[in-house]
From TrEMBL:
Enzyme class: hydrolase
Pfam families (UniProt xref): Hist_deacetyl (PF00850)
Entry GO MF terms: histone deacetylase activity, hydrolytic mechanism; metal ion binding; protein decrotonylase activity
Biased composition range(s): Basic and acidic residues: 1-19
Protein species of origin: Stichopus japonicus (Sea cucumber)
Name this protein carries in UniProt: Histone deacetylase 8
């Protein structure tokens, strides 16, 4: 076993592929500083992961692979507390133990950071005082009929039952995600990981969909203090409704959600028509999908949409919710994805080389969720994992094959090409409107129109339109009516034909 040392970013992939040990030696001459020397575990190979090798060399090739410094948020208390979450009991320890057993936590570019202590003040940056007070009260209280009405009012029932130490868990989750934010804003790390976070359904004054606290919204709010534009990407099976709604009126954060959208399926929101409001109009992107979607189709859709979003919005930081309930075998029984599908998507985003926070989320088949987030940790580190699950405390739960990979089922894919094409083309049209508003020419035009309308408005300050000041309302109407059009470049990346061709492969 050799020491893992510092690495160059670009070409160690091609020089070292097929010779992991030589690759480790190459790492020694890297200009990247402050990476601790650690031993390379035998269960991993310091090369580009399998999933990245399969990415077609089209327009994404401009984003070169890069050795990333990764912060992994962990402490024994974090795991102990998150093990108490009623709908994902003991999941946190399974995920962490598998990642640890692969030796990923002793690999050079990763640093384990203990979570900061989340406080009431952190929760209050998004949640209401009444809701936080209730969580605090329930922390020590036994579940009793006496408080049923109050709990139901704030969603602590059915999907989100009360449990002992509920307030400590909420604070710990938020503290862990904020530690990830802190790691990114310090510029010492390119990626931060909190697999105990990612609770995207919790609302300001309501627990919902197994989520008691919205650490995502709180993290995004914190990120906007350091980054101009923050992009949120939701890969969970369910729509990221509460995160979208929290930022539906602002352009500082753009939300993109890929999810199952079907009558009666929770939470029932996330139509392609949900685009945001006011200043946030077109900054909410929804890609509704049907059951049975496979790795190739899902990755193609995500890649096409995210390429367009990145080009239009030009984010300075990214948060990805990596819910694992989209995997085949999950009790939600909907999508037909494997680790390769979601791994390809995360790898594509990471190749933008932007500060990125990776969060957990759904995932109700515990061994598969552990497999998925272990694989994503490896993707972030750019290493390949051995297929055999290493022997560890929970090894027997990975039977009967004890392999890392999972196999897709033979269920039909209900996403027709026509339907997908229509959805993606609609999304493209909306996303390009974001670009128009941001582009210099249109920005100047908008500024001129705004100045002109302000000039008029000064003489009639009391005039309102649709409940908002006259000037803002007219700008909004002009943008909505697609007045600021730009000509589509022929054969540009928005061209669906390329995607269609790839999907047919
Ligand atoms: Zn979910």
């Amino acid at each position: 076993m050799e020491k893992c040392e510092q690495s160059t970013t670009k070409d160690h992939q091609e020089r070292d592929e097929g010779n992991p040990q030589r690759g480790v030696k190459r790492l020694a001459s890297s200009p990247v500083t402050n990476l601790r020397e650690k031993e390379v575990p035998t269960a991993i190979t310091p090369a580009v992961s399998k999933v990245t090798e399969k990415i077609p060399t089209d327009q994404v090739a401009q984003f070169a692979p890069k050795l990333r410094r990764v912060a992994y948020i962990w402490s024994p208390q974090l795991i102990d507390l998150c093990n108490l979450l009623p709908r994902v009991l003991h999941r946190a320890s399974r995920v962490h133990t598998l990642i640890e057993s692969y030796g990923l936590l002793t690999y050079g570019p990763i640093t384990v950071l203990p979570p900061i202590e989340g406080g009431k003040e952190h929760l209050l940056t998004f949640h209401s005082q009444e809701y936080v007070d209730l969580l605090e009260f329930l922390n020590e209280e036994e579940d009793s009929e006496k408080w049923m009405e109050k709990k139901e009012e704030f969603g602590i029932s059915c999907d989100c039952p009360s449990f002992p130490r509920i307030f400590e868990v909420a604070k710990m989750i938020v503290g862990a995600s904020l530690t990830g934010v802190q790691a990114l804003t310090s510029k010492e790390y390119q990626v931060a990981i909190n697999w105990t976070g990612g609770w995207h359904h919790s609302r300001r004054d309501e627990a919902a969909g197994f989520c008691y606290v919205n650490d995502i919204v709180i993290s995004l709010l914190k990120l906007t203090e350091s980054f101009k534009r923050v992009l949120y990407i939701d890969l969970d099976l369910h729509h990221g409704d509460a995160v979208q709604d929290a930022f539906a009126h602002t352009s500082r954060i753009m939300t993109v959600s890929f999810h199952k959208y079907s009558p009666g399926f929770y939470p029932g929101t996330g139509s392609v028509e949900d685009v945001g409001y006011g200043r946030g109009r077109y900054h909410c992107v929804n890609v509704p999908l049907e059951d049975g979607i496979t790795d190739v189709v899902f990755y193609t859709v995500v890649k096409r949409v995210m390429f367009e979003v990145q080009k239009a919005y030009q984010p300075s930081a990214v948060v990805i919710q990596c819910g694992a309930d989209c995997l085949v075998g999950d009790p939600m029984n909907s999508f037909n994805l494997t680790l390769k599908g979601i791994g390809n998507c995360v790898d594509f985003i990471l190749r933008w080389n932007l500060p990125t926070l990776l969060l957990g989320g759904g995932g109700y088949h515990t061994p598969n969720t552990a497999r998925c987030w272990t694989q994503l940790t490896a993707v972030a580190l750019g290493v390949r994992l051995k297929s055999e699950i290493p022997d560890h405390q929970f090894f027997l739960e990975y039977g009967p094959d004890y392999q890392l990979e999972i196999t897709p089922s033979n269920r039909p894919d209900l996403n027709t090409k026509d339907c997908l094409r229509t959805t993606v083309q609609t999304v493209f049209r909306r996303v390009r409107l974001v670009f128009q508003v941001l582009s210099i020419g249109n920005w100047m035009l908008v500024q001129f129109v705004r100045w002109f309308l302000n000039f008029i408005h000064r003489s009639c300050t009391s005039v309102m339109m649709d409940g908002v000041p006259f000037t803002s309302a007219v700008i909004e109407k002009l943008v909505s009516a697609e007045v600021f059009l730009w000509r589509e470049r022929p054969g540009g990346p928005g061209n669906w034909n390329g995607c269609h061709h790839y999907m047919s492969a």
